Amino acid sequence: MSSRYQVITMLSEMCNVLNDGFIFYQQGITRTSYDRVRAMCTRMVEEKRQAMVDLTAFISPASAKIETRLPWGEKIKTDYQALQDALAQEKEAVLSKRLNDIENQILQRFDEMLDAKITNECAQVLRKIRTRMLQCHDELTLLMKQLSA
């Protein structure tokens, strides 16, 4: 059973992770010379920004200011930062596998949050965000396959 504090912590950490992704993809827009990669990064920026907006509705202003960093979130932040060089050097093979791994971990966390004791309203929002993140993940996978072919 999840306490309200645990739910807020999970949501806060997801917002932190989404923000890390937002920053990564925002930088990706300027670091790649491929128009299709730029378009995908632009979509990811918008989806991650909207997801953060949607999730913060369930976090009180006081708890939103607390910088929550759980081990899985720190790892994803580190992974996003490490991928900046691969993106700048346009090493799609490296980028594709590692970026897919990161986005898979995020999807798994959404599944875990949906298994927690949360309100119906929060569950609906999480499902909506997870669906959009899955669509982005599928787009990323397809694009990386096309670029490495």
Structure write-up:
This protein has helices spanning 4-31, 35-56, 61-64, 71-88, 92-115, 120-148. It has 149 residues and is mainly alpha-helical. The chain has 6 helices and no strands. Helix content is 84%, strand content 0%. 27% of the residues are buried. The model has no long low-confidence stretch (mean pLDDT 83). α1 runs antiparallel to α2 (35-56).
Strand content: under 5%
Largest sheet: none
How far apart the termini lie comes to 47 Å
Radius of gyration: 15 Å
Average residue pLDDT: 83
What percentage of residues falls in helices of 4 or more residues? Answer: over 70%
Total number of helical segments?
Answer: 6
Principal-axis shape: elongated
Structural class: mainly alpha
Q: What is the N-to-C order of secondary-structure elements (H for helix, E for strand)?
A: HHHHHH
**How many β-strand runs?**
0
Enumerate the spans where pLDDT stays under 50 for 5 or more consecutive residues: none
Which features does this protein show?
149 residues, mainly alpha, 6 helices, 0% strand
Walk me through the topology.
Layout (H helix, E strand, L loop, with lengths): L3 H28 L3 H22 L4 H4 L6 H18 L3 H24 L4 H29 L1
Helix pairs in contact: 1-2, 1-4, 1-5, 2-6, 4-5, 5-6
Summarize the structure.
The chain has 6 helices and no strands.
